[in-house]
Design goal:
Number of domains: 2
Helix content: under 10%
Largest sheet: 7 strands, antiparallel
Number of helices: 2
Distance between the termini: 47 Å
Amino acid sequence: MKKLYFLLFLMSVSVFAFGQQINEFEPNPAGTDPANTTFELKGTPSAAFDLWILSIENDGYNGTVDKAANVTGTFDANGLAVVTTSDLENPSFTIILTDAFTGTTGDDLDGADNGTLDTSSLGTILDAVGVSDAVADDTVLYASSLGGTDILFNGEFEPLLVFRDGTTGDWYNTVTVDFGGPGEYIGVFDASGVEVAAGDFDSDPTTGPTYGADNPSLSTASVNDYNKKSFSVFPNPTNTGSVSIVSASSSNYGKMNVAVYDVLGKQVINKTMTSEKLNVSALKTGVYIMKITQGKATSTKKLVIK
C-alpha cells in the first residue's frame, strides 16, 4: 500500500512538473508594436508538442477570440520551447493554452457577457493567464475560472513582461512605474498587484525576457519577508456592512489606506484606517477591488458584497 501511495505521489509530481504551460511572454513590450509575440512554453523535456495559443478579449466581458495560433515543436532538454504568434492586441486579455481549437478568430465565446466561456471548441485547456490593464477589468478576466491565474492591474501601466517564477511557478509582471515622470523606473509586481523588489530575485527581471533559459526566482528569504506583508480581509463575501482588514505582519507599522473601486473603475471608498473595521454599508451588492497600502506594503484584494 505504501508503494502505491508513493507511486501516486510521483505521478502527481510529474504532472505538476511537466504539464504543458505558458511560462513567459510580453503583453506590451516597450517601443513600437512588434510584428510577432514570442511565448516561452514549459513541458516534458524532449517531448514534441502540437498546441494552440488563443487570446480572448477582456475589455469588459467580451469573450471574442482575437488571436488563435497553432504552435508546434519539441521541448528542449530543460523542458522549454520558444514559439511565436502574430502580435497580440494590448491587454486586457486572457491567454489560453489548449491542445485543440475547432473555432475561428472572431468567435464570441461569452455571448451572454456574464464571464462564462463556451469552451466546447477549446479541446483540453492546459493553462490560462489573464492580464488586466485597468481596475475595471480585474473582475472580468477568464483565467481563474479556467484553472489558471488572473494578473490584476498593477495600478501603473500595461505589463511589459509576464513570467512564472523559475522555482514556484507563481506569476509576476514587470511594468513602467511613473511612466514619463521624473521617477520613471521598471518595477516588478505579483499577480495581485503587490510590488516586489527586483533585487529580491536571483536574477533581475527588469532586464527583459529570458526566453530559452530559466526564469528569475524570488529568494527563500525574500519570499518569507514578502509573505509577512500580506493582508487579510474578512468576512469576505460580506453582508454585515463592514469588513476587518488585518496586516499579517505585526511589525508592519504605519497608517493603512484603503481604496475601493467598482467594476467600472470608479473609486467608491478612499479611507485612512483608524481601526481594523472598514464601513462598506453604502456599497451595493456586487464585486469590488480593494487596494490596501501600509508603509511600503501594497496589496490588491477582491471584495464581494452580498
